[in-house]
């Protein structure tokens, strides 16, 4: 008698974030190390198979696709347009992430009002829908009154249900949809609480589908975790077209927006904003915020030029050395990488023969700016040397360059661009690394000296006498 073969199926579990599978449930994914993302995947091996369906419209040739539908539309906020590559593209989905209270809602409410006031070629205005899930409509209205962001075609709704929000989209038919935030919306079609991995995936997929079908620009506000990453599944960043990071010190008015992903433009641009009581405004020239503005030179200070994306910004580094009262010297750093400042102290002590490691060192930047670029090494080292000798650098001097452990000054990108920015702001002298590339025509009114070692830079910082070697001779302005 033939027996019917049976196949025993074992329930499997799958990570909702990275797809890792296991035969038993665990609280933490063994692949991506995420907590609470492992869910039951089902036991039917044939489930989930999709077959081909009839094609309603054949795929056109790429040359027949109308590219005019993906042209940039300026938002009216110049610095945001700079980051996005020229403006917002119809049908694009933008994820704006940042810490709580950094100014995301203020910026996007201003953008919504600017877009709502923009007229089409036929003279009509474009409707904009702002969906808030964190505040009431009255609270958002108070902010709109404070920053003058009230427009006739700007619609506002407070919703936390995804179905209701999509219904508002159907009724309003907006050109721009802003959802604040994607972690507060919840779909009734899937399980889980708002902000969970399953809910965020469903909410994001539904909003992206609506944006593509309606050719509607959509901006999603995203929360961040303690380590600064965007909350929710990593899949969220892959689904959207643009990911923008909103940055800034809580005690500073300066805010920066940078694109870490952009399918329509560059990812090396940075937008600068000034957040005040009356709203947020674009800063086309933010360099003045990072300079102390003292009329006379002060020992222990040096101005450098850093590149934020492709934009050169001037920043001032200040250093103070005092006698140590204990056995271990104190190191206090603000706005710079502590380990890199410690390295500069060691290089100055060993290569320039200045006794700085036995003293308490306080190194900081002006205006709350954070310098993470190695090009600020030379300015840090010169500020430390100036503080040690109590001798200020000549007024109108800038310095930039990366310093190695051997005391060599290495070239950095964009030397000519940095020099032009310093000359535009009235600086007269520049200490720069020796560059193998031709710097081209330099602006008038600024004297440039190339140095190859830290010792050379420290020797000429007060007398401003260039080394005698030809390759280090001052570059003449053309």
UniProtKB/TrEMBL annotation:
Q: Matching CDD domains, A to Z?
A: RadA_SMS_N (cd01121)
Where along this sequence does the record place binding of ATP? 98-105
Gene3D superfamilies tied to this protein: 3.30.230.10, P-loop containing nucleotide triphosphate hydrolases
Q: Looking at the record's lineage, which domain of life comes first?
A: Bacteria
Q: Name one GO molecular function term.
A: zinc ion binding
Keyword terms, alphabetized: ATP-binding, DNA damage, DNA repair, DNA-binding, Hydrolase, Metal-binding, Nucleotide-binding, Stress response, Zinc, Zinc-finger
Which residue ranges are recorded for the region named Lon-protease-like? 360-478
* Pfam family for this entry, one: ChlI
Choose one Gene Ontology CC annotation of this protein and give it: cytosol
Q: Does the keyword Transferase apply?
A: no
One biological process term from GO is: recombinational repair
Looking up SUPFAM superfamilies in the UniProt record yields: P-loop containing nucleoside triphosphate hydrolases, Ribosomal protein S5 domain 2-like
**Sequence motif RadA KNRFG motif, residues:** 261-265
Q: Which InterPro entries match?
A: AAA+_ATPase, DNA_repair_RadA, P-loop_NTPase, RecA_ATP-bd, Ribosomal_Su5_D2-typ_SF, Ribsml_uS5_D2-typ_fold_subgr, Rubredoxin_2
| Domain RecA family profile stretches | 69-224
Q: Which HAMAP family match?
A: RadA_bact
- In UniProt terms, what function does this protein have? Plays a role in repairing double-strand DNA breaks, probably involving stabilizing or processing branched DNA or blocked replication forks. DNA-dependent ATPase involved in processing of recombination intermediates, plays a role in repairing DNA breaks. Stimulates the branch migration of RecA-mediated strand transfer reactions, allowing the 3' invading strand to extend heteroduplex DNA faster. Binds ssDNA in the presence of ADP but not other nucleotides, has ATPase activity that is stimulated by ssDNA and various branched DNA structures, but inhibited by SSB. Does not have RecA's homology-searching function.
| Domains (record comment) | The middle region has homology to RecA with ATPase motifs including the RadA KNRFG motif, while the C-terminus is homologous to Lon protease.
Task: From the Swiss-Prot or TrEMBL record, give the protein name.
Answer: DNA repair protein RadA
Specify the taxonomic lineage: Bacteria, Bacillati, Actinomycetota, Actinomycetes, Micrococcales
